Amino acid sequence: MRTYSKRVPGFRAVLRAIRSHLTEPLAIKQVVSDFEAALLRSIPSVFGFKVQHRGCVFHWTQAVWRKVQACGLASAYMERDAVHRYCRRLMSLPFLPAAEIEPAFQRISLVHSAKVS
User: N or C: which end of the chain has fewer CB within 10 A?
Assistant: First the structure.
């Protein structure tokens, strides 16, 4: 498996190639992608720091599920209601208005920290 730092140059090369094939110079304001860390780091270096990243709910929930699996919590997710509810609430955060996401995350973390452990 390639490490994060080795994939950044590859993403930058692809993004530069895309930019070079544009027929007119565009002022890109927003990029929609998954939550690949190397890609997220590459976007500002190619398109500028004012470009906003937007992810989709599918990729967000996929990223949360992968983290659940990486932490060894997949069976707990299936078997323990508290773990399942905690993860599902994390997955539902993108449906909130942007200003409410961080406070909601803090509340979820406080309420579920004792129940999940």
Answer: N
Cβ neighbours for 77, distance < 8 A, ≥ 6 positions apart: 68, 83, 84, 87
What are the structure tokens assigned to 5, written together? 């730092």
Residues across the chain: 117
Residue ranges per structural domain of the chain: 4-55, 57-116
Note the pTM of the prediction, 2 decimals.
0.65
Assigned token pair, 3 = 């490490």
Contact 19, 52 (CB under 8 A): no
Residue 4: the pLDDT is 57
The amino acid that residue 18 corresponds to is I
Decide: 63 and 35 in contact? Cβ < 8 Å: yes
